[in-house]
Amino acid sequence: MTFKQLADRYRQALLSDIIPFWETKSIDTEFGGYFTCLDRYGQVFDTDKFIWLQARQVWLFSMLFNRLEPRSDWLDVADRGASFLRRYGMDAEGKWYFSLSRDGRPLVQPYNIFSDCFGAIAFSQYALASGDEEAKAIAHRTYQQILDRKSNPKGQYSKAFPGTRPLVSLALPMILANLTLELEWLLEADTVDKALETCVDEIFTLFLDSQHHILRESVSPSGQPVDCFEGRVINPGHGIEAMWFLMDIGQRQNNTQLIEKCVEVILRTLEFGWDEKYGGIFYFLDIDGKPPQQLEWDQKLWWVHLETLVALVMGYRLTGNAQCWSWYEKVHQYTWEYFPDPEYGEWFGYLNRQGEVLLDLKGGKWKGCFHVPRALYLCLREFEQLI
Question: What does the pLDDT read at residue 156?
Answer without folding.
Answer: 83
